[in-house]
Amino acid sequence: MQLPEILIPATPVQVLLPDAAAALPLVCDSPHSGTDYPADFGYAVATADLRRCEDTHVHWLWDAVPQAGGTLVHATFPRSYIDPNRDVQDINPAMLADAWPGPTTPTARTLELGMGLVATHTPARQPIYARRLSAQEVAHRIEHYWRPYRQALGEVLEAASAQGPRWHLNLHSMPSNAYERLGRVAPGPLADVVLGDLNGRSCGSEFTGRVAEGFRQRGYTVAINDPYAGQDLLRQFGAPSRGHHSLQVEINRALYLDEHTRELLPRASCVREDIASLLQDVAAYVRHAGAAHPTPSSVAIAH
Predict the structure, then answer these.
(1) Which residues, including other chains, have CB under 8 Å from residue 135's CB and lie 6 or more apart?
(2) Which residues contact 127 (CB under 8 A, 6 or more apart)?
(3) pLDDT by residue for the chain (303 residues), tens digit each?
(4) Which residues fall within 8 angstroms of residue 180, CB to CB, at 6 or more apart?
(5) What is the DSSP letter of 171?
(6) Which residue from 38, 160, 251, 261 has the least number of CB within 10 angstroms?
(7) Could you give phi then psi for residue 104, rounded to 5 degrees?
(8) Is 208 left (phi over 0), alpha (psi -120 to 50) or beta?
């Protein structure tokens, strides 16, 4: 198969900043809502099926982040090309045509579902490729897509925590058949919103509870860590003991999206308005908590 020439993307990641005077230590990122499919992707499945991997329109739902004083980071490329929410070693060597030059530590999810750093299967278990990828292809995706996203997010979070604690919302959407997709029996209806904090390891319980209550006050059902507890970005950037709070937010796609066509439903604008309102509550919490609870490092510097 002859693939197009490998090109370097112009803008793999977008960073939307608040007005400097209103800036808060609040960062939101959407790693899976990108829809710019690179010409060298070389996939062999229907585009409509591949697009079911997307968290389509999530960064649009949360586009009021800068108005609330936060920074919004989002990928422009699709997660099925390379997933910035997976560890760089989460590669199944069986998908490669030649040897990988470094270590690989594929997770069970990667081996069973094909949803690692570079996905091999769609959510419906369809093979994405009719070939094996070269190590050079995967290395290119890491260098020009995965790494710029992680670097941009890391720099924004580092800047946010320069004077004290920080709060990070990792934004996603989930399919309405999430339990089925995960191969699990649903214990009941899927919640409208699932918050993940790695079972308390990436975020303080107070912030998780505040965000949950904010959604509930607006009429949404909320679950915590079920069926999604969080992934690699939370593991890398969440450290509650240091004042670094990272919380994953999953919105049920059936609330705002036609899951087959990827088109917005009439209710989508209402969901977006509710999120904009919620962000004002989150901003108020961050202003209060940031002033009341400096990090241990900032206290040490002050002394």
Answers:
(1) 96, 97, 98, 99, 100, 101
(2) 44, 45, 114, 120, 121
(3) 444 555 666 799 999 999 999 999 999 999 999 999 999 999 999 999 999 999 999 999 999 999 999 999 999 999 999 999 999 999 999 999 999 999 999 999 899 889 999 999 999 999 999 999 999 999 999 999 999 999 999 999 999 999 899 999 999 999 999 999 888 888 899 999 999 999 999 999 999 999 999 999 999 999 999 999 999 999 999 999 999 999 999 999 999 999 999 999 999 999 999 999 999 999 999 999 987 765 443 333 222
(4) 186
(5) E
(6) 261
(7) -130, 135
(8) alpha
Q: Is 212 left (phi over 0), alpha (psi -120 to 50) or beta?
A: alpha
**Beta bridge partner(s), residue 248:** 170, 196
* Tokens linked to 180: 């089925």
How far apart, in whole angstroms, are the C-alpha atoms of residue 223 and residue 210? 13
Helix extents (H) in the chain: 47-50, 58-61, 108-113, 135-141, 147-160, 178-181, 205-217, 232-237, 268-292, 296-302
User: How many secondary structure helices (H) and strands (E) does the chain include?
Assistant: 10, 7
Amino acid (one-letter) located at 198: L
Distance separating alpha carbons of residues 211 and 204, to the nearest angstrom: 11
Q: Verify cis geometry, omega within 30 degrees of 0, for the bond prior to 227.
A: yes
Distance CA 27, CA 11 (A): 19
Task: Tell me the β-bridge partners of 194.
Answer: 223, 250
